[in-house]
What does this fold into?
Amino acid sequence: MITWLVQTEDDLPALPPAAWLSPPERERLALLRVEKRRREWLLGRWTAKRLLQARLGEPVAGPALDALAIVAAPDGAPELVAELPSTGPVRGPLRLAISHSHGRAFCAVAERIAIGADIELVTPRHPTFAHDYFTAAELASLAAAPAAAYDTLVTAIWSAKESTLKALRLGLTVDTRQVDCQLAPASATEAWATVRIHCDPVLEAPPLCGWWRVSDGYVLTLVAAVA
It folds into this structure.
């Protein structure tokens, strides 16, 4: 089961970060000098911790937020180390994805399966953006879409690629045209619509499934390995 949460900067607590960050996270925060980057990082961690706290509830209330350490794996992907009263330190089996954009953070959690998540504000891109990063099939789908939907679809295709590459723990280290994302029509009710994903065989990717939605001017995408 995938669980997810979106938070805004207004959801950040008035508490000082030291009250809810673990020691490794406090060390990481101290290295972030740019205020915008600090706030984005804090919002991402806050969103992830609130989601994980609910997911790990045992049995009445979840663990304290400062007992949840979200650390970077060697490949840069976020990983959870939790100090739970019932078990002590726990690393895995939960898989975690964090994304932030323009004052919002999006986090998703799944158990024992690869997962990627991304949030993007819908904004116009440079005219050459799609041609630089999209596959021929993706460009064809854009050409067939209504002009009014163009910016949303470009944002959604890009976001789905980001989520896919996060699930594969590759990030933007590979050519984004090695991933093809075909979107089902968006729902008028902000429900999740599907994304069909095909990866170049060179990536040795497992079967993947994806979803996307538009909410309040943002695109959200999720990608997970097929269990």
Q: What stands out?
A: The mean pLDDT is 92. The chain has two domains: 3-112, 116-225.
